[in-house]
Write a structure and sequence with these properties.
Shape: globular
Structural class: alpha/beta
Strand content: 15-25%
Radius of gyration: 15 Å
Oligomer: single chain
């Protein structure tokens, strides 16, 4: 986990420097790609299967949604505020042959309707996870949530796994 956090902090510093010099839009979370091993572990931990609808919050290059469609038969939507990441995600979906199963939306996570998802994946910062937590807890009971690297405060995960140098957290939205 230390390596993941270090990479994320370094990327955040680079992103903040770019903002100061007018080179990038302001992002809540810097783009740090999730390794394919961690992507596979996240989808396995969530028990993704055909018929599932996977939403990736802060999708970056789309690798989680593309993998869910290609390897698990799910459909999915990736959301990212950075238009460059959305373009890259669309290209990756095209190259993987899954454009009929996925879509990518240039949107702010806090304004995103997640009600159609039954699996939510994310690699965000702790502050962002906590801001999204009320919205996630309002989703339909049974929705599976997987977070790379960061937890959700006092909402205790049902499972925690370690893959390579990463920590993955898993929750299920409880009955109301």
């Amino acid at each position: 986990m230390k390596k993941s956090v270090t990479i994320l902090v370094c990327a955040l510093l680079i992103c903040c420097s770019a903002v100061v010099y007018g080179q990038q839009p302001v992002l809540d979370v810097p783009y740090v790609p999730t390794s394919q091993n961690v992507v596979d572990a996240m989808l396995k931990l969530a028990k993704v299967k055909p018929g599932d609808v996977v939403y990736d919050l802060g999708c970056g290059d789309g690798r989680i949604v593309v993998t869910a469609a290609k390897n698990y038969g799910a459909t999915g939507v990736g959301f990212d505020i950075d238009p460059e990441r959305i373009a890259e995600a669309n290209e990756n979906a095209k190259n993987a042959g899954v454009t009929d199963k996925v879509k990518f939306v240039n949107a702010n996570l806090f304004d995103t309707d997640m009600s159609e998802a039954n699996v939510i994946t994310m690699y965000l910062l702790p502050r962002v996870n906590m801001q999204l937590r009320p919205k996630i807890l309002a989703l339909k009971p049974g929705t599976r949530i997987v977070s790379h690297a960061f937890d959700m405060g006092d909402w205790k995960p049902e499972k925690i796994e370690h893959v390579d140098d990463a920590t993955i957290y898993f929750w299920t939205v409880p009955k109301k």
